[in-house]
Amino acid sequence: MKNCLAELRDEKGWSQGDLAEKLGVSRQTINALERGKYDPSLPLAFKIARLFKRSIEEVFEPEEKLGKPLK
Amino acid sequence: MSETDESVRDMGLGRRLITNFVIAEFFLIAGNLVVRMCNRGAFLPTWTIAIIAVATALPMLLFATKFFRMLRTDLDEMLQRVALEGLAFAMIVFVPLAGLYVNARAAGLINARLDPPEVLLIPSILVAMGVLISWSRLK
């Protein structure tokens, strides 16, 4: 999953450590999220979106297009 | 808290955990060796040997409790995943190998006898390998 976490963090002028502290996770987790190596759980994704006052879709975007839409 | 402080705290947690594990493992293996020596030489009463056997296993019990608590409260979701993948890797590799060893030994294909030090060390080495594999994928 792609995300614009690094850009959003830069806009705020926060370090990875600052963001980690605000979200209650480790700096390593922020690093893995920004590099797209780790996909967050839904609660963490909501927390991130709320922190930056964005919707989840604005922060995270699936890398591949999803299959057929659900009926 | 700065990035450096955070890293130092995370590293401290990992280092403390490894140190505690090594100490607990040392007590367990040393206790096992002492008990076997005492049994061979028969120079200690049975109840003393029993106390040594139980007492030297206590540090590992304490470590296990601490590890469980750390897994539930101190680690975030990604680090929990790394630890759990490490444990899963150890289980996935150890169980078939142990099964194969038991059957091959029963069939007389293998004569080597695993001693407690090996039996105790193999799962922990496998957990460490599993954690490293999982960590390297996320790094």
Question: How would you explain this protein's 3D organization?
Answer:
The complex is a heterodimer of chains A (71) and B (139). Chain A is mainly alpha-helical and 71 residues long. Chain A has one domain (2-55): 434 Repressor (Amino-terminal Domain) (Orthogonal Bundle), CATH 1.10.260. Chain A contains 5 helices and 2 strands. Chain A has helices at 5-12, 16-23, 27-34, 42-51, 56-59, and strands at residues 2-3, 60-61. Chain A has a two-stranded antiparallel ribbon with strand order 1-2. Chain A is globular and about 30 Å long. Chain B contains 5 helices and no strands. In chain B, helix 4 (77-106) packs antiparallel against helix 5 (116-138). Chain B folds into 2 domains: 1-74; 76-139, no CATH class. Chain B is an all-alpha fold and 139 residues long. Classes of the chains: A mainly alpha (71), B mainly alpha (139). At the A-B interface, helix 2 and helix 3 of A face helix 1 and helix 4 of B.
List the helices and strands and how they pair.
The complex is a heterodimer of chains A (71) and B (139).
Chain A: E1 2-3, H1 5-12, H2 16-23, H3 27-34, H4 42-51, H5 56-59, E2 60-61
Antiparallel strand pairs in A: 1-2
Helix pairs in contact in A: 2-3
Chain B: H1 3-41, H2 46-55, H3 58-74, H4 77-106, H5 116-138
One letter per element, helices H and strands E, the order of chain A comes to EHHHHHE
- Beta percentage of chain A is 5-15%
CATH topology of chain A: 434 Repressor (Amino-terminal Domain)
- Low-confidence stretches of chain B at least 5 residues in length (pLDDT < 50)? none
The count of helical stretches of chain A stands at 5
